[in-house]
Amino acid sequence: MNRLHSIAAVFPLLFLCVILVATAQNQFTVDATMQPSPPARARGPFPGSPSPGHSVNLPIRLELLFRTGDLRPDGTALVDFVITNVAPKPIILPSSADQNIAPMAPKVVLTLWLTSDAINDQFFRDTTSGRLVKFEIVGTSAELYGSSDVPQSFHELAPNESMRVHASSRVKLDQGMNSFTGHAELLQVSNGTAKLIGTADSEVITKTLSIPSPNTR
Questions:
Q1: Taking the CB of residue 198, how many other CB atoms lie within 10 A of it?
Q2: Going by C-beta distance under 8 Å and a sequence separation of 6 or more, which residues neighbour residue 118?
Q3: Of 62, 128, 148, 204, most Cβ neighbours within 10 A?
Q4: Contact, 173 vs 74, CB < 8 A?
């Protein structure tokens, strides 16, 4: 009898695990890992907030995840941005990684990036003085585009539903343990001008990164 009770108690837990695995497998995913960096904006994205949260017009919870602890040969790392709808009703977000989508039409652009002390500073040499000058533009990790001319370039997220964006840090990162914060910025772009719709910031995470050994298989 006790054995039957134990089996009965375990069965709902196993059923819940199956549901969670199925949900994860069915999660909408965009692969922007190989997306090239777009031309740098004059001011770059805003650095973002050091605390988690979102603005009213972008009701999402943003999570930053590292897919491995390995740095790639160019010093970048593979990251995921998980976007969850925290609004009581569905929201529609851009979901195309195609930077050339509907080039002449108005667009909505979701920019994703990370900030950290682990990011290598970048410099350029001033042609007048010959001095090295630090870049102040923040590097981005992915841009998702949506245009009304291409309806499939948007994805609707139901309440509590998530989408995952595979991306590259694009910026070079130092080895060792460091803190990282993910950021999102949603813009309406039309006729060469951009209007801010909303922003979101992830919780700070800590990750140890290293260059894999040549003998690692």
A1: 16
A2: 173, 174, 176, 178, 180, 209
A3: 62
A4: no
- Give just the sign of the alpha carbon dihedral 86, 92, 94, 95: positive
CB atoms within 10 A of CB 140: 23
Give the CA angle between residues 142, 113, 41 to the nearest 5°: 75
| Structure tokens that stand for 106 in this block | 């108005």
Q: What distance lies between CA 160 and its chain's CA centroid?
A: 17
Which residues are CB-neighbours of 206 under 8 A, at least 6 positions away? Answer: 177, 178, 179, 180
> Which amino acid is it at 86?
V
**What residues contact 50, with CB distance under 8 A and at least 6 apart?**
181, 201, 204
In this prediction the pTM is 0.82
> What's phi and psi for 88, nearest 5 deg?
-80, 0
Alpha helices (runs of H) in 71-182, residue ranges in sequence order: none
19: number of Cβ within 10 Å: 10
Distance CA 64, CA 202 (A): 6
Residue holding tokens 């990036």?
Answer: 113
> What domains does the chain contain, in order, with CATH numbers?
28-209 (2.60.40.10)
Q: What is the pLDDT of residues 78-97, one digit of tens each?
A: 999 999 999 999 999 999 99
Q: What is the pLDDT of residues 97-137, one digit of tens each?
A: 999 998 889 999 999 999 999 997 654 455 666 664 555 56
| Amino acid letter for position 48 | G
